[in-house]
Sequence to fold (507 residues):
Amino acid sequence: MLRSGSFTPGSEPILRVAHISKAFGGVRALVDASLDLYPGEIHALLGENGAGKSTLLKALAGVHQIDSGEITLNGEEFIQGSTRMSIEQGVAVIYQEPNLFPDLTLAENVFIGRQPTKGKFVDWEKMQSESKKLFDGLGIPLNPLAKARGLSIADQQIVEIAKALSTNAQVIVMDEPTAALSAKEVERLFEVARRLKAQNQAVVFVSHRLDEVFELCQRMTVMRDGSTVDTKMVADSSEAEVIQMMVGREVSELFPKIDVETGDSVLTVNNLGASGNFEGISFEVKAGEILGIAGLVGSGRSEIMRAIFGVDGYDHGTIQLLGKFVPKKNPAKSMAMGMALVPEDRRQQGLFMPTSIARNASITVLKRLSKGLVLSRKKEEQTAITWGEVLQLKFARIADSVDKLSGGNQQKVVLAKWLATNPTLLIVDEPTRGIDVGTKSEVHRLLSQKAKDGMAILMVSSELPEILGMSDRVIVMRQGRMVAHFERSDATPSAVIAAATGSGSQA
Fold:
């Protein structure tokens, strides 16, 4: 395992969060949370979904005002409850999903609301040159005059970091910044974080990926149930110890795969092709089988899943479910035939963000919960609560809008709504992205149990341990084509990586 560089804390922290608490009605989101942050360090903030991380971050971002405790910045009281004041005091939060103005240039996004002026007019030349300096200083040569529309998530994050630096931020919080990035983009972000550290900025790094924490961070603070459990040097700990601190117990089986004798073919894909996305795709998934689809981001994995379910079309080939041909571009028909798709992008494709948790979790089975045209709210809420218990969903009220949940809990709602349909074929694209390590084990256990019950599962994942730990067979994609096929016993990390990257004997 890679280890991060050494770090010795200075005499005084730049940011001190001491024994803070925060309640929302009867729900105590923070009970006793503390965090010390020093200049020139990358500090990991860890914990399961619902541990209180998001509430703590929102207190620093100025979204929430704490009920008790103390927050100081540079030894002075931190003014709370105003996002503008947080930024002016030197704290900037880079969220998992950046929020840029797509039709403005990158320079305009960096200086939005704070444009430099020359007399009464905006100094466009200065704004562009200052933006270029910021991008160059981060080692990413973006064009300040380019529009934000169409920018990758990775580059959007760089723009957000440049925006933070333009405000002279001393504390930069990165909330799950790598969740939607490829391996190459992750490494580039790490280099940016290391540059910030070298410039004596303090970086808070929130992630569920422990391998990233041990590679990048110097110290870590672990939270559980709204309280700080411990703060320690990363080099003095291990993944097993971190997991135990996070969940309050040892997770003995992160990949509880049940060996199952597979049944008849459920899904048959024959010579599927879509110009510019994928070609020559043929495989089958049997009852009781978990077929893993591996490959780098952009290899065509998600596009194939969307075509199978009917979200996108394709140029040629056939798809059969239980021997019956599945029509093109007809998700409703796919659902009626017994398919379900947990999409890669939960916010844009999986949820109705302003709508209640109950409605989102039960929306796929509303007809079953209705009598004629009248929906039973009681049955709707009970369905959501039942699956919420199975997936350990953490929420204040089932009637709250789903956008009030953390990212990991939103992912659980997407899983709940599709599992409620009891599908014959379950397609899961990045099923545990943004989910904490404790609940990952429960999701894996649930998928394994569903396979044991006879469900066919098609799983796309960027996490190699998940692919290797949960799949009966593994197909590897590269540049829109299937380049390798492994039985479980032959699917080693080196073999899968070699096939995905086009290196070694599997190329």
About this structure: The two ends are 26 Å apart (CA to CA). The chain has a mean pLDDT of 89.
